[in-house]
Write a structure and sequence with these properties.
Length: 122
């Protein structure tokens, strides 16, 4: 499956952004989908996860209550609505697809998008 992330940008603290991840090539609903982020000099970290047809979701503690992951299987697209953004949310955000429910583990995902930059100014 090929993934294309978009929607990043520059926003002030407290603002909102919505990221999109468009998938193509295989049956989107068969995959678990996740969002990760990587700040300069840091390791890639888990942000949010969405199950396949079950629509289970899971969030990192750092974004819980502020970010919402969703997916539209008919459009082969996943979203990440980010509200109340903080400067520490600044990172390149990646979408990923996999077949394992080890959703916080980078190695559980076999497919990655190219990343979209999110910058939150204070």
């Amino acid at each position: 499956v090929q993934l294309q992330a978009s929607g990043g940008g520059l926003v002030q603290a407290g603002g909102s952004l919505r990221l999109s991840c468009a998938a193509s090539g295989r049956t989107f609903s068969n995959y678990y989908m996740g969002w990760f982020r990587q700040a300069p000099g840091k390791e890639r970290e888990f942000v949010a996860w969405s199950g396949g047809s079950t629509y289970y979701v899971y969030y990192a503690d750092s974004v819980k209550g502020r970010f919402t992951i969703s997916r539209d299987n008919a459009k082969n697209t996943m979203y990440l609505q980010m509200n109340s953004l903080k400067p520490e949310d600044t990172a390149v955000y990646y979408c990923a697809a996999g077949s394992s429910d080890s959703y916080t583990n980078v190695d559980a995902y076999g497919y990655w998008g190219q990343g979209t930059q999110v910058t939150v100014s204070s």
